[in-house]
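Design request, tokens follow.
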């Protein structure tokens, strides 16, 4: 197998993976449809926020092992690391995977390795295999085709890419062997072999499992609110049991993975995926419920004090201590609360972001000082130990517990 790798997709996963492969002195030709991304990388710079990625990319480009382009070239291995977004009704859209496959199709030759890393519905790898062999029948059974999901945590990508175990599933044994051989050159975590369908399902199940567990914690928070029980204390006590490990409730589930991947299962197996589907509903409902709670607190305040309150919405990110606001339940809640109330006093706080296109941001200390109602949406470290005396506090994420 030739050493060269073509990486299609230079985003949050593709670029760090490309840099890691290049660090191991394998030539990587990174491909992205966005010319700005290509130019930025070729200058040795990056277009996303991820610790240590800047140095890895700049080193790889300087050493001549990483080059970006808008078109693929001939190589020994092709990695597809593009997004799999949604169509209407929460159905996965594999058109980017398809387009990437079509782009490399004319370049493929016997013995090449073709790997999909993009989160994909079960059966996608086989579908792409059929597409490839229908266009290039002379290559039938001569390619090595596999699926290997990424499972890194944003913010810790450069470490986890190397150290996490990987699940690798080929369309046949030979493909699995070849893919394992490939990853063993830059991954030090264990490489677990399986078939393509199981590997695809494994990624979906990992994130669905977390979603279901968070839904359980969120459901408890709704029950405890009615029952007059402190849910944080309850969970801490229940977790003293050696075989119980309940996660933390929050204002909903965000990010680009856990709030999304379960739908890949539900869309295809709706009758069988009752718990997975309901977990999605509970976690979505939790955000709506938080927004309603804030509205109710405002009305109560007005009835009691004869004036409209000012409100601090604490946090916009999708989880604590990051600057990523995409698919964020806190952002959804802020939007809902501000709807039709824009003339009232709202302080929007996000200490990890300097400026926002839509929201006018306020320093967290100033917001807490000025507001009557403080709603904690994200448990950022800055929010612990603030003086909240005299304030109405809505703690949706366990900042004060
Ligand atoms: N959350 C809670 N309660 C908890 C834990 C998390 O409400 O006890 C919320 C967070 O606030 C956030 C959401 O869940 O809104 C997701 O956060 P996360 O830290 O659980 O996960 P992500 O989305 O940053 O990354 C996940 C990881 N998957 C798992 O932990 C099973 C990561 O390993 C995957 O690589 C990533 O999804 C992905 O790309 O699929």
């Amino acid at each position: 197998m030739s050493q060269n790798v073509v990486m299609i997709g230079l985003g949050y996963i593709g670029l760090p993976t490309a840099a890691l492969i290049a660090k191991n002195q394998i030539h990587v030709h990174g491909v992205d449809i966005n010319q700005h991304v290509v130019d930025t990388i070729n200058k040795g710079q990056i277009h996303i926020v991820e610790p240590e990625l800047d140095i890895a990319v700049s080193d790889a480009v300087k050493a001549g092992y990483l080059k970006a382009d808008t078109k693929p070239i001939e190589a020994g291995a092709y990695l597809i690391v593009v997004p799999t977004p949604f169509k209407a009704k929460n159905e996965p859209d594999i058109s980017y995977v398809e387009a990437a496959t079509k782009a490399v199709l004319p370049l493929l030759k016997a013995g090449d390795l073709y790997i999909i890393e993009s989160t994909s519905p079960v059966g996608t790898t086989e579908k792409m295999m059929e597409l490839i062999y229908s266009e290039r029948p002379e290559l039938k059974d001569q390619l090595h085709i596999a699926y290997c999901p990424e499972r890194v945590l944003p913010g810790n990508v450069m470490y986890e890419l190397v150290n996490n175990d990987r699940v690798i599933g080929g369309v046949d044994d030979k493909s699995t062997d070849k893919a394992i051989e490939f990853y063993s050159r830059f991954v030090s975590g264990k490489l677990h072999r399986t078939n393509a369908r199981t590997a695809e399902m494994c990624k979906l199940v990992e994130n669905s499992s977390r979603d279901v567990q968070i839904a359980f914690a969120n459901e408890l928070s709704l029950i405890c609110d009615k029952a007059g029980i402190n849910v944080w204390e309850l969970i801490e006590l229940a977790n003293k049991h050696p075989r119980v490990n309940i996660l933390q409730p929050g204002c909903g589930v965000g990010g680009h993975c856990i709030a999304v991947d379960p739908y890949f299962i539900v869309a295809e197996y709706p009758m069988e995926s009752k718990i997975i589907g309901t977990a999605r509903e509970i976690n979505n409902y939790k955000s709506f419920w938080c927004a309603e709670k804030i509205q109710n607190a405002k009305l109560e305040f007005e009835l009691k004090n004869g004036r409209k309150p000012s409100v601090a919405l604490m946090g916009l990110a999708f989880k604590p201590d990051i600057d990523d606001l995409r698919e964020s339940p806190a952002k959804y809640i802020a939007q809902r609360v501000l709807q039709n109330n824009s003339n009232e006093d709202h302080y929007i706080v996000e200490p990890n972001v300097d400026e926002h296109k839509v929201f006018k941001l306020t320093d967290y200390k100033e917001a807490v000082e000025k507001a009557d109602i403080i709603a904690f949406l994200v448990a950022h470290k800055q929010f612990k130990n603030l003086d909240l005396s005299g304030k109405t506090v809505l703690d949706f994420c366990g900042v004060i517990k």
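Comment from the thread starter after seeing the answer: thanks! Residues 5-189 form a domain with the Rossmann fold fold (CATH 3.40.50.720).
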